[in-house]
Automatic annotation (TrEMBL):
<keyword id="KW-0804">Transcription</keyword>
<feature type="domain" description="HTH tetR-type">
    <location>
        <begin position="8"/>
        <end position="68"/>
    </location>
</feature>
<dbReference type="InterPro" id="IPR009057">
    <property type="entry name" value="Homeodomain-like_sf"/>
</dbReference>
<keyword id="KW-0805">Transcription regulation</keyword>
<feature type="DNA-binding region" description="H-T-H motif">
    <location>
        <begin position="31"/>
        <end position="50"/>
    </location>
</feature>
<dbReference type="InterPro" id="IPR001647">
    <property type="entry name" value="HTH_TetR"/>
</dbReference>
<keyword id="KW-0238">DNA-binding</keyword>
<dbReference type="Pfam" id="PF21935">
    <property type="entry name" value="TetR_C_45"/>
</dbReference>
<dbReference type="Pfam" id="PF00440">
    <property type="entry name" value="TetR_N"/>
</dbReference>
<dbReference type="InterPro" id="IPR050109">
    <property type="entry name" value="HTH-type_TetR-like_transc_reg"/>
</dbReference>
<protein>
    <submittedName>
        <fullName>AcrR family transcriptional regulator</fullName>
    </submittedName>
</protein>
<feature type="region of interest" description="Disordered">
    <location>
        <begin position="197"/>
        <end position="226"/>
    </location>
</feature>
<dbReference type="InterPro" id="IPR054126">
    <property type="entry name" value="CprB_TetR_C"/>
</dbReference>
<dbReference type="InterPro" id="IPR036271">
    <property type="entry name" value="Tet_transcr_reg_TetR-rel_C_sf"/>
</dbReference>
<dbReference type="InterPro" id="IPR047923">
    <property type="entry name" value="ArpA-like"/>
</dbReference>
Length: 226
């Protein structure tokens, strides 16, 4: 059992180290030597768990799909809103989320979990439930709108990263929803929705790291996709 526990911990250390390297450098520039250094493991240990750099990147993206969830007791449309704020939270505090997002934007995909597939599916389901409950307008096409919401969030977080290392991401996401809601939600529903989120985005999330995002610089524009 002790040996198995060590193997699990070693695998976890490698994934977390890889996430930090992918988040910082992107896929092409990520060096396995740097991943080994940060994980403090041997090359043999890494290749025992991950036979290639591709499999390691896929593992990071697979874990990203576990980071967004919703509170079932909330309205379906509020749940969609809250899922974006929860993902905004983990982007600020979790290297796995940042790495998975950067790899997805760079088009790194090896046939495993689709970069945004689970989020598309979750949002589509919630929008369809919202239609059934009268929250979402009948003319809205759930899948089309779900993919638009994910795309809009992706653009918003990129801008927030570029201008202030995502320190203002929750504010920008709330602005996004104030623009989107009038086109998809029943007018009576909008009055009771909270674009800024209805729940604490950290309440149901256990971040893999606890680093705090620095406050934005006055003109802090820097390169990088995520």
């Amino acid at each position: 059992m002790a040996k198995q526990a060590r193997a699990v911990q070693t695998r976890r250390s490698i994934v977390e180290a890889a996430a930090s390297v992918f988040a910082e450098f992107g896929y092409e520039r990520a060096a396995t030597s740097e991943i080994l250094r940060r994980a403090n493991v041997t090359k043999g240990a890494m290749y025992f768990h991950f036979p290639s750099k591709e499999s390691l990147a896929q593992a990071v993206m697979d874990e990203q799909t576990l980071l967004v969830n919703v509170e079932p007791q909330l309205s379906p449309l509020q749940s969609v809103i809250d899922s974006t704020h929860r993902f905004a939270h983990v982007l600020r505090h979790d290297a796995l989320a940042r790495a998975g997002t950067r790899l997805s934007i760079e088009g790194v995909y090896f046939g495993g979990t689709h970069p945004w597939g689970d989020w598309f599916d979750l949002t589509t389901r919630l929008l369809a439930e919202g239609q059934e409950q009268g929250e979402v307008l009948p003319r809205v096409e759930p899948r089309e709108t779900a993919e638009f919401v994910v795309a809009a969030f992706t653009g918003v977080q990129l801008v927030s990263e570029a201008v202030g290392r995502r320190a203002d991401l929750h504010v920008r996401v709330a602005v996004m929803w104030r623009h989107i809601l009038p086109s998809i939600a029943h007018p009576a529903t909008i009055a009771r929705l909270r674009p800024e989120g209805a729940t604490d985005p950290s309440a149901a999330i256990a971040p893999q790291d606890t680093e705090e995002t620095a406050e934005p610089a006055e003109t802090g524009i820097h390169a990088g996709t995520a």
